[in-house]
Amino acid sequence: MNTDESTKASVETALKDQVTEAIKSVYDPEIPVDVYELGLIYEVNVYPVNNVFVLMTLTSPACPAAESIPGEIEQKIRAIEGINDVQVEITFDPPYSPDMMSEAAKLELGFL
Asked: Which of 10, 31, 84, 96 is the most buried (most CB within 10 A)?
C-alpha cells in the first residue's frame, strides 16, 4: 500500500468512526438504548468522495418510530463535516431479535 492509499484508508476509517458515533446518538424513543447498541445497524459503508450507506432494520415492521429513526440517522450523518451523500436503507432480512443487541444494551435492558 503506498502513502496515498494509506492516507485515504485512514481518512475513510476516521470518517466511518465519526459516522458510527453519530448513529450512536440516535435512540429508539421507546427503549433507552441507542440504535447501534440495539443491533439495528447491519452495515455502515463509506465510499469514495465521502458517500455513506447504512443498512439497518427496526425492532419490528410495525415499529412506531419507523418514519423517524432512519431520517434522524441520515440527518446526524449529514451533519458531519465533509459528508457528501447519505443513503439509509431498511431491511427486515434477517429479522431483528434481541440477540443482536450488544452486551451493554442487554445489561441496560435486563437481558443479562
From this structure: 96
